[in-house]
Structures are given as C-alpha cells and as structure tokens.
Structure of ParA family protein:
Amino acid sequence: MTPPKPETSQEIGWTPIAEEAERAARVLHPEGNTLPRPRRRRVLTVANQKGGVGKTTSAVNLAAALAVHGLRTLVIDLDPQGNASTALNVEHRSGTPSVYEVLLGEVSLAEAAAVSEQSPNLLCVPATIDLAGSEIELVSMSSRETRLKEALSAEAFDELQVDYVFIDCPPSLGLLTVNAMVAAQEVLIPIQCEYYALEGLGQLLSNIELVQQHLNPTLAVSTILLTMYDGRTKLADQVTQEVRNHFGEVVLKTVIPRSVKVSEAPGYGQTVLAYDPGSRGAMSYMDAAKEVAERGAEQGVRGELS
Ligand SMILES: Nc1ncnc2c1ncn2[C@@H]1O[C@H](COP(=O)(O)OP(=O)(O)OP(=O)(O)O)[C@@H](O)[C@H]1O
Ligand SMILES: [Mg+2]
C-alpha cells in the first residue's frame, strides 16, 4: 500500500490570500457571530494623559467593530485635535455643530451627531478646532465639570438609540477629561507596550479616584487595552506581564499588535476594519470588541481597581 500523498496548500485550496479573504469576510459579515447587547447602555471614557498611546485608534476601531455587529455605537470626539472625527471621516470644519456647541448647551447631542459612512450603526459627534479654547473657557462657566454629563442625558441617548458610547479624550487631565469621566460609568485605559507606558498611570488613577470621590461615585476602570505590541521585542512582553500582574482581570486578553495598516487607515478616513478587514490589526480590534461586549453582557462589568 502506498502512503497517502501529502496534501499541498494548493490541493486543499488554502493559501495565505485565501485565509486573509476568509478573515475579511468574517470581519465584514459577522452575522453568524453576533455580539450580545449590553444589559444597559455603556458609556466608556477612553483616557490616558500620555499622548499617542492609542486612545483614538482604540475608540474608533472598537466602536466600528461593535457597529459591524449591529450594536448602535456613538463616538464622542472630545479632543480638539479632532483625530476621531478624521478617522471616521465626519465633517469637522470650524462651524460644524460639534461637541463644543454641545458643551455650551447650544445644540443637542442628536443635532451634533453625524452618521459615519463606515456603518449606519456608527455615529460620531465631531470635535472642531473651536474646542481648543474650551479648557480655558470652561473654567469660568457654571457646572464646568458636569456640562457633558448634562448633555448626555438618557433622553439624548434614547433619541440616538445607542448601545455603546466611547468618549475619546485629549492627552491631558484637564477639564475636558474630567467632563468625560463625570459623564461615563467606565474608563477604558489604552496602554502602549513601551518602556515609559506605565509612567503617569498613577496620576491617571488618582485623578479617577478624585472624580469618584467628588463627582461620579459609580465611575470604574473597567477595561485596560494593551496597544502597539511588538512581538519582536522582549520589552513588549515585560510590559504586558507587568500590566497583567498589576491590574489582573481588567486587562483584556486581546492585545493590539503594532501594525502598519492600523496607522495607515486614518489617512484614508477609515477605521482599520474598513481599510483592511483581513489584517491582523482589524482582527485584533474585532477580538477586543468581542471581549468588551461579552463583559458587558455579564452583570459585573465594573472594574475592580482599588
Ligand atoms: N496598533 C497600532 N499599530 C501601529 N500604529 C498605531 C497603532 N495604534 C495607533 N497607532 C498610531 O500611533 C499614533 C498614535 O495613536 P492614537 O492617535 O490612537 O493615540 P492617542 O492616544 O489618541 O494620541 P493623542 O494622545 O495625541 O490623542 C497614530 O499615528 C496611530 O495611527
Ligand atoms: Mg487621540
């Protein structure tokens, strides 16, 4: 008897391109794999005063991944840089109804929200350059820490029928970030897998504690996402391990790899899910969104950080 001939990848119809196409199809048409609706609407503030750690990238890609699964998702761009608005290709020229007018109470959330062309389930309240002066303008305003919360009323969210809200913060712990922390129930902290990543985290956590004590007792750090992981470096593993040892369960199992596709996507006004759905970056944000949603379906979504 002759031994069976080993199958080549061609014979079994498997090639790297076929595999990527199959992954892309799973990302773009995940019908068979729907994510649970949260038990209650979830408002997550994406914060880290360190710049360039992946706040905006994580906010828009997690939002896009949830939207692809049929969950109505709103991204509130609370950074005068307007990066989330750019990534979602939403108009944000000066004068466009934006989060600035929402903070001033001049327009409602629904009036400022635009539907992203990436998905009818994905909405964005843009940030224009007008927001740049608001850190200073807010100082002299009444209820300066709670203005966003007032605008994000249950009625405002009901009008938009959203399941998830991500607030993309600027890289500072100023009044805009405080407004975001007062308006949310959860904080999502992206941490870059780099040497200095943990620096400043203590300050962020003590600010969160201050907000808990004085302004929003139900706020909790529910999610930490490790970003820009480079598997070729020992350092990335060390940082990952350190963060996991320190923060435990709150850290998502999924780690976002450093990927050129992820960084290229905003240049095309797209999330990585739209730009290259078969890429590792897109798959990892899908996996991270799945974890976020599955935690949301459980009762104890609150973070356990002390
Ligand atoms: N997984 C990744 N792989 C490669 N590049 C990435 C990845 N995630 C983010 N980037 C890039 O790193 C840069 C910083 O990311 P991002 O803008 O999301 O950070 P941020 O924390 O929002 O920054 P800021 O503090 O300025 O708001 C961007 O150029 C982005 O495209
Ligand atoms: Mg940003």
Observations:
- The chain has one domain: 38-297.
- The chain has a mean pLDDT of 90.
- Residues 51-57, 79, 81, 83, 171, 227-228, 256, 258-259, 262-263, 266, 281 surround adenosine-5'-triphosphate (ligand 1) (CB under 6 Å).
